[in-house]
Give the backbone structure.
Amino acid sequence: MRTRTREPQTLGSEGTLDRMARILAARNIDPAAVAELIDDPESFSPLDALSAGLPPRYRGAVADHPQVLAWAHDVAEAAVAPSRGARRQVTTGPSLLMAGVVGAGKTHQAYGAVRRLVQSGVGVRWRATTAADLYADLRPRPGGDSERELAAVSRCPLLIIDDLGAAKASEWVEEVTYRLINRRYNHMLPTLITTNLAIKDLRAYLGDRVASRLAQMTTRVEFEPADRRRHRPAA
Ligand SMILES: Nc1ncnc2c1ncn2[C@@H]1O[C@H](COP(=O)(O)OP(=O)(O)OP(=O)(O)O)[C@@H](O)[C@H]1O
Ligand SMILES: [Mg+2]
């Protein structure tokens, strides 16, 4: 029997750095921000790490919606320490369905909620994706492992699914969304969902199974129907 051997890779070798750059890019993390943290470990804090992982548009986002603040409080309260004396980690907790018109401030509140959680001192592993990007990542393709990717997003302790309902509807979209939501529903994993769709349209788009689970697992947050992008100076 032949065993395949791989060249040993030291940390910082070209291959490792390339891989790290790809992982950071896939998570929308600015490699320059990470390099700064590595160069100056003294300045490292959970909030620094959070900022490095946030898209620049929402880096300063602060949650101020009462229901979003209440959600962050409840999730922080539900956090548990994996061992005695260890920092409490987000495990299970409630979810939010933030609905409103384009530009209402939903994504701002979602990132602001993550900031709030980190500020509260609990540890949280989180991921954010638009539904459309998620479907693109999960499309079976040569060399890709979409089942593994689906398992990773399904199990991530906190997931932001931005713009649910904005991608073209299809049986495949319905099935993948069902598999994702069903896993998060079963494991009671906190999920922040934003959508422009009304509930009845979401049901038509995703089917009864997903709509029923969302109705039970999420609190619905309605935003004022105003496009904030049109009422502020360009940035
Ligand atoms: N509370 C806030 N304070 C300051 N700026 C805000 C606030 N909420 C939203 N914004 C800004 O308003 C703009 C629109 O917000 P955001 O992108 O969150 O809207 P959205 O509801 O997610 O829109 P879409 O449905 O198109 O994705 C952004 O530039 C955001 O930074
Ligand atoms: Mg948005």
